[in-house]
Amino acid sequence: MALFADPDKKSNMIFLGGEPTLHPDLPFAIKKAKEFGYFVTVDSNGYLFNDLLARTTPELLDFLSFSLDGPDAETNDPIRGEGVFDTCVANIKRAVSSGYSVSVIYTVSKKNLSSLSRMIPLLQKLKVHKFFIQVLGLRGKSAKADNEEVMQVSRQQWLDTVPEVARLASEKGIHVTYPKVFLASGEKFECAGVVAENFFVFPNGRVYQCPLCEDHPINAYVIENNRLVKNDGLREDSFFRLNIEEGCVMNKLLQPDTIEYDNKGVPLHRISCCLLKQEIG
What we know:
- 25% of the residues lie in helices and 19% in strands.
- By secondary structure, it is an alpha/beta fold.
- The protein has 2 domains: 170 residues, Aldolase class I (TIM Barrel), CATH 3.20.20; 80 residues, no CATH class.
- The two termini are 31 Å apart.
């Protein structure tokens, strides 16, 4: 934490997983992060292992985010697992009643896109005022259903649904954050690796700037002997400044299936940087 702390900048520390509440020392890590001056968030699957709510406080933990992929068990549990919806909702209620600032993360796929709008009344009922909508990536088993159908939504499905749901939620007093994903003609492309400071730190010491690269040993940095060391050679940051018609160069290299072309080989749209978000509300 000390390697990245800067008292002159507003910095966010997000504890991710896997499931971070499985680690018994998470409350200690939250406390230390706050001492370093970070705005602290924990992203959880909703199970809140190791009695997290009782072992930290709303003063130390600025936001507790819950992953919920449906407004009911019928939508969420085929994605997240049997019984997950009830457990997650019960713990959201516990967290809200305990004074924690709570947000919900919804990962859009073909399995739950049509249910996205029904999250609005659920969030209102749960008194959750911050909503993150994510796009399903192409990495790992999550990208495909059992029948090998690609579960990532199309450009048109995304654009027809997500911005409108975000608008409706904001009218109900819910602050919505979602990735731009698809840039319209004339919209400027920017790479967060160039215009922002984002670091993804792994237990093995690898430090990435782009989350798309995390399955590959091209990390820009590594932590060695409690020092942040810049790696030599051809690394992820070698590509960030490349200007290509498809937009995000790492998306083009690592998951090109997300890009559509016309019969002349010209991309029909550009993919935005997944780290740069739209906010409404």
